[in-house]
Structures are given as structure tokens and as C-alpha cells.
Structure to design on (329 residues):
């Protein structure tokens, strides 16, 4: 009995360690030092990491300011959280604002420019980024600095998108000519150009694999940034980081992926039509109806009445025959 007593406590201690280890995996708390800092690897360049040095990710299915990753998702993608009363901090060189989202279990998840941050449970060491691209919806966070005007962000609707230094989605205008903008007046009000100071050279953050950055002088003398001779713009009606509601407007405005290619067209619900005729059109059906079997010339309704009439007549005849037979009895 005496020899078993220490063994009991050893087993109990081992069980408690295992329990706390599992708990820490599902909700990784921020440690000492900066909550978010910069690291990276050769494959992806510089990206953001948590206080434990492990890679941080964003989930494109999240909505700005709120996580939708719970239950099994949360087990695979533990949230970066801080303790009650703790203010998250960024290391020097990290661009963007940190805020807090309170999760259903009461833990406080860290957000960067409105995007919830996570770890990938299957990364094993600092520098691992095995979660990048998982399901086409999980991505590392590019470590852009304040001086870099072109960055990679994430849109819940589109996935990776090119953004400006404020994190907002950038667009190109199909009606522009090479190296020159034709968007002025009301168009310019709805589609503000990406502007830099005169004499400044635009640079891109790590993770941007797009082509050559350049500039073009606008009519008012402002210097607009171009990508492969395509002037870049914001959409005035995007309201938060991650919005891409300008994509597809008028079928002439498009968001770009990290390589600078246009995202596939997805019809946008734009607040106002600009940059082309966005008046909704009615599909040409060649005169055919839009219900039934594709045509409605009245014959279907006529047939219904014939069938119903015949059925009513047969019902009356049957009832009369039944009543007559009852009287004869």
C-alpha cells in the first residue's frame, strides 16, 4: 500500500499536466513581450507571429471584427488571446491596429485591423507555416510595414486581395489606358486613387508576388500608384478591412489577388452605379415565361379547366346515380 501511494500521486500529476496542456492548445494565451511581432521563413518571406514565436493566421470566412471559428475549428485553429485587462501590443515594424473580440467562452481574442488572429495546431516549431492555404481560406499575415503601399489582405468573399497601407482592398479599372487614369469627377469620388507623395517610390510588402509598381501623374498633380501600368484605386463604399464590395461593379472594376491577377468576377451589390452602366438587366428569354416549363401561352391553364370540369361532371353523375339507387331501395 505504501509503495502504491507515491505512484498514485505521480499518475495524478501526469494527468493534470496533460489536461492543462490540452487546454493551452485550444486557447493559446499571449506571453510576455509583444503580442504580435515579425518573423518568417524562406518560402513565404516575413509574416506575423504570436508571443510564442508561432505563426499567426487569418480566416477568410470570418467577418470583420468577429470570429466564426468555434468547436472543432477552434481546436485546430487556437485563437490568439490575451488575459483580462491586458492590452495587446505590436513589435516595432508591425503595421495595423490591435483590438479585442470577446469569444463565447469569455476569452479575449486579438484582432489586427479587424481580422481575428489564430495559430495552427499542427505547426510544430517557430517558422512553420503549414496552415497557409489550408482549405483555400486560411493564410499567414504578411508583415507589412508602414512604408509599404501594397500589401496582401484577406476578403471573406474572395480570399487574398491586394490592399493599400490602410488595409483596404484595391481595385483596377478596365477602362483605364496603360499607365493613365481616366477616372475623374464623380468617378474619382467613388473610386479614390491610391496616392503617394511626390518623389516617393512605392514598395510592396513581403508576400506580394504581383508585377512592377510605378506611378502616374493625375490631372490635379497628385501621384497615383500603378501596378503593371494599371492605376490602383479604393472603393469609397467599402466600410471595413476585408470588404471587397467594389469587385465586379459595372463589370469594369476588379479586385486583385496576391499575384496581381484579377479575381474571377462576382456580381457586387454596389451602393451606387459608377464606372459603367450598372443598371440591372432582365434576362432575354425570347418571350418565354419565367415559370412553369419555360412557356406560358395559356394552353396549360385551359387544359386545367377542362380536366377540372370533366371531373366535376363525373362527380355529379356519380352522386345522382347513388341517390337514385337509394330511392329504389
Amino acid at each position: 500500500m505504501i509503495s502504491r501511494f507515491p505512484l498514485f500521486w505521480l499518475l495524478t500529476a501526469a494527468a493534470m499536466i496533460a489536461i492543462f496542456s490540452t487546454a493551452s492548445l485550444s486557447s493559446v494565451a499571449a506571453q510576455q513581450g509583444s503580442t504580435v511581432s515579425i518573423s518568417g521563413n524562406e518560402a513565404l518571406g516575413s509574416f506575423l507571429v504570436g508571443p510564442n514565436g508561432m505563426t499567426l493566421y487569418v480566416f477568410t470566412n470570418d467577418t470583420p471584427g468577429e470570429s466564426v471559428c468555434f468547436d472543432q475549428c477552434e481546436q485546430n485553429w487556437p485563437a490568439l488571446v490575451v488575459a483580462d485587462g491586458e492590452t495587446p501590443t505590436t513589435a516595432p515594424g508591425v503595421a495595423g491596429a490591435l483590438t479585442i473580440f470577446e469569444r463565447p467562452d469569455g476569452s479575449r481574442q486579438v484582432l489586427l485591423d479587424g481580422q481575428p488572429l489564430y495559430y495552427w495546431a499542427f505547426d510544430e516549431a517557430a517558422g512553420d507555416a503549414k496552415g497557409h492555404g489550408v482549405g483555400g481560406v486560411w493564410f499567414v499575415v504578411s508583415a507589412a510595414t508602414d512604408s509599404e503601399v501594397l500589401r496582401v489582405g484577406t476578403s471573406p468573399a474572395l480570399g487574398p486581395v491586394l490592399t493599400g497601407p490602410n488595409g483596404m482592398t484595391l481595385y483596377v479599372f478596365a477602362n483605364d489606358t496603360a499607365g493613365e487614369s481616366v477616372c475623374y469627377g464623380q468617378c474619382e469620388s467613388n473610386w479614390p486613387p491610391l496616392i503617394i507623395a511626390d518623389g516617393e517610390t512605392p514598395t510592396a510588402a513581403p508576400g506580394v508576388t504581383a508585377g512592377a509598381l510605378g506611378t502616374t501623374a493625375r490631372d490635379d498633380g497628385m501621384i497615383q500608384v500603378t501596378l503593371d501600368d494599371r492605376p490602383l484605386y479604393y472603393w469609397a463604399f467599402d466600410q471595413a478591412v476585408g470588404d471587397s464590395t467594389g469587385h465586379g461593379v459595372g463589370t469594369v472594376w476588379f479586385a486583385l489577388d496576391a499575384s496581381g491577377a484579377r479575381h474571377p468576377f462576382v456580381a457586387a451589390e454596389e451602393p451606387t452605379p459608377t464606372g459603367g452602366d450598372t443598371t440591372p438587366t432582365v434576362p432575354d428569354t425570347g418571350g418565354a415565361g419565367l415559370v412553369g416549363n419555360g412557356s406560358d401561352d395559356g394552353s396549360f391553364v385551359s387544359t386545367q379547366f377542362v380536366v377540372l370540369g370533366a371531373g366535376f361532371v363525373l362527380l355529379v353523375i356519380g352522386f345522382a346515380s347513388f341517390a337514385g339507387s337509394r330511392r329504389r331501395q
